[in-house]
Amino acid sequence: MVAIKINMSKISLNAIKVLGLNVLTLSLLLLHSLSVFSQQVSHPFLIVKADQFEQHRQKAFYEPWKSMAEDALEITKKGFSEPIMGAYELQDYMGAVALSYILYPEDKDRYAQKVKDLILNNYSKLELTEKRDWGGVVPPMSSFFVAILALDIVYNDLTKEEILACEKLIESQLSKINRKGSWTDVRLGTHGVWDIYKGDRTGPDDAYYNGIMHQITTDGVSPVTIHYAWERVGGGDSRISKAGYMDVLEFTGIDKRYYSNEKLKKFHRWLFSASVNNSKEMAIIGDMLPSQGLKNDLLHARVGNFDEQAAAYTAWFHEEDKKRGHIISYLLPHSKLPYPQYPKSSVYEDGGAFLRESAKNPEGIHTVLYNIKSQDEWHTHQETNGLALSGMGNRLLVNGGRLGEPTRAAALNNTLTIDGKNHDSRLGNGIVEYISREDFDYAMGDAGPALPSAFHNRSMILLHKTSHSKAYVLLLDEVEVEQGQKIISYLHPANESHIDTLLVNESYRAAIDHFPTVAGTALDIHYLTKPERINQSLVASAIPSRYPNHPKHSRLEAIYSPDKSGKNSIVTLLNPMAEAEKVIQLQPSLQENYDAHIIRHKEGAEDLVLSSQTPDRTISFNGLVFKGDFFIHRAIAGDPGFIFVKNATALTGGELEFKAEHKLTLWMKHRFISVLAKENTVLYLKSKTSRSLYIDDKIIENPETEDEWMKIPLPKGTHKLYFK
C-alpha cells in the first residue's frame, strides 16, 4: 500500500470535495494513515527484531546479561513511583523500560504504555531550541534518539492512535532543531534514526560517515582531543546519537561501513588503551579539564562489534564496572566482552607516542608526545610535540583547559615556541622514530609545519621502574633557529599553589594540588641543560568568563639561546614522586662540548645521560668513548645494564659496545638490540662466537668479522637483532 501523508487537522471541507472524498472514504483513510511514517516496515527493526526477543530473554540467565536484566527491572519499577525529569534521566529510564518490555513479557503491555506516556507527557516538556546553545540541542536530541528506539521496540503493543500521537510529538519536537549547525553529529544521528524509522532514509548517510572519519587520523588517533574522542565517536552517554547512529545504520543494513572499518577498529583500540593512564583517567590533551572524568557509558558494551582487541582493552578499562540495564548496552553487543587485556606502550605515526609502564600498576607512568599530521579540529590546541604526563595515580601536567581559542596557544600547553610566538599550525610531521623494548620506550616527534621557520624534534624517553631503578622521563629537544631568537619551553605542572625552587634555573618541585586524584604526590623537574632563566607564573586553566571559579595553575617557562650555529639540544628530566621523597641524586659535569649527568638510584643502578654540543667530535667520559648526539648508559653491579644512543657512530669502553659507518639510533641490552638506520650502513658488534646472530628474525650464517668485531650490513630502516 502506498503511504499517503495528509495533515488531517488542516484539511478543509472544500479540500475534501476537491479530492472527491466522501465521509466513509475519509474515515478509511484516517484509519489506514494513523501511523503515517512507518507502514513500509515491520516493527521493531532499528536495533532489534521481534523474532530475536526470545534469544535476548535466554541471555538473561547468564552474566553479564543477568545483572543488566535485573538492573533494568529495578530502574523500571522505580519510575512508576518516582518522577522522571530531564533529558538524560529520561534517556536512561526509557532504555531500561524498553529492555524490560522485551525481557519480562508478562508485563509488556504495562511497559509499552509507560514508553507511550513518557513520550507524550515527559518528552513533550523537553525544551528543544537553537536559542539555548548546547543545552537546547545536545541533551534533548541525545534523549530523543533513545525514545525513538524505544517506540520502535514497543510499537506492536500500542494502538494506531497511540502510535500516531507519539510520532506526532516526536516529529514536532525534532522539527525545532535544524539538521545543520553546531554539534553536527548529534543532529545527524537523531534526525537520521528518525528518518530511518519513517522510511525516508534507505541508503547510506555520507554526511555522517564523512564527519566521523574526519575525527580519526589514519592511525586511529583522535585529532579532536582526548575528552571529545570519548564523548563523540567513543560513544559518550551525553551525546549518544553521535556514535549510536552508526549502530542503527549497521543493524538495519542501510550502511554497513562501520563495524568493518579499519580506522574505527584502530580508534577503539587506541581509545580504550593509549588515551588513558594507568589510573584509567584521560590524558590531558586539547580542550578538556582535569575535573572531567570517564563513565561507564552504554555504547562501550558493543566495542567488540568493531574489534576483538579493542573489546579486550574495554574489558580492562571496565574491569570493576557492571553494565547498566538498557537497550543500548544489552541489545547492541554481538557478544560479551572478552578477558581483559592490559595495554602497553603504543606509537602512532599520525597521532603521537603513548608510552606507559605496566598497566597493572595504577601508579605507573603514562606519558604522551602528541603530534598529529593529517587533520585537526576546533577543539585541537597548539600543542604539536606537546606532552601529557601521569604517574603516582595523578595527572601531573595540565594545559590551557577549555574552551576554544583563548586556551589553545602554544604557551598554554606543554610544548615549545620560538620567541613565545604561537605555532603556525596545529599539525606536525607526526612521530618519525620510535623504539619500544623491555623497560624502555623512545619516540621522536617532528614539529614540521607548526614551526616552519625553525626546526624542532622532540624525543621522549620513558625509563620504566625496575628492581634496580625508579621510573622517570627524559625529554630531548633538538632545535635550530635564527640567531637572536629565543627558544622557550613550557611545562604546566598540576599545581595551583607554588612551585618550590630546589636549585635556581635547574631543579624544581611541584606539589600536585590542582585537581589531584591522590594526595601527597609531586613532580620534580630537572633542567639538565641549564636555561638562561626560568619564569614561574600562574596561568588560566579555562576561559574565566565560562569558568569564573576555576583555579589557575602554575607554569614554568624555560628560556634558551642557540649556539653560534643556531642550534641547541635541551635535556629535561621529569621525576614523578611522593611529596616526601628525597630529590633524585644528580651529579652534573658540564663541559664546553657536552653536558653529562650521573643519576644514582637508591635501588642500585647508575645512569649516565650525556648530550653532546659537538656531535662530530669524540667524547671520553668515565672510561666510555662516544661519538654522536646523545646517549644513556645504565650500569648495574654484576649486570651490563643497557645503552641507548641517538645519531651516533660509536660507543666503546663498556660491556655493551658498537660502531657504525653512518649515524644511527640504537638500544642494546644483554642479547637484544634495536637499530634505526636513516641510510644504508654497516654496524659493528663485538663478536660472540658461542651464539648465533639473528636480524629481523633471520639467522645470519657466519657473519664477517674484523678485529673481533662482527661486520653487519644493515639497509635503511628499523631492525631488531638478537643473539641466541
UniProtKB/TrEMBL annotation:
Which Gene3D superfamilies does the annotation name? 2.70.98.70, Chondroitin AC/alginate lyase
Reading the lineage from the top rank, the first entry is Bacteria
- Protein name per its UniProtKB record: Heparinase II/III family protein
